[in-house]
Amino acid sequence: MEKYLNPEKHKDELIMLALSDKASFNTIRQRFDLSEADLKLHMKRWLKPGSYKAWRVRVSRFRKRRSTYKRD
After folding, report:
1. Distance between CA atoms of 50 and 29, rounded to whole angstroms?
2. FRET label pair with 51: which of 20, 40, 57, 66, CA 20 to 30 Å apart?
3. How close are the terminal C-alpha atoms of the chain, in Å?
4. What are 10-53's pLDDT values in tens digits?
């Protein structure tokens, strides 16, 4: 799998993967070399404030229900 080291250049793909229920943070880390914290910072910059908060709430809720959500 090809690694993408410039998050700004692949912003649309990163947002799509982060919002996807099927892509884990580990998958994003392997592909883009971004930690979960780095991804959160980028998403906070790229998304509208309400969209970012909704995304974080959704990830948190799913994580509580499913221990493996967004993790491999």
Report:
1. 25
2. 66
3. 17
4. 899 999 999 998 888 889 999 999 999 999 999 999 999 999 99
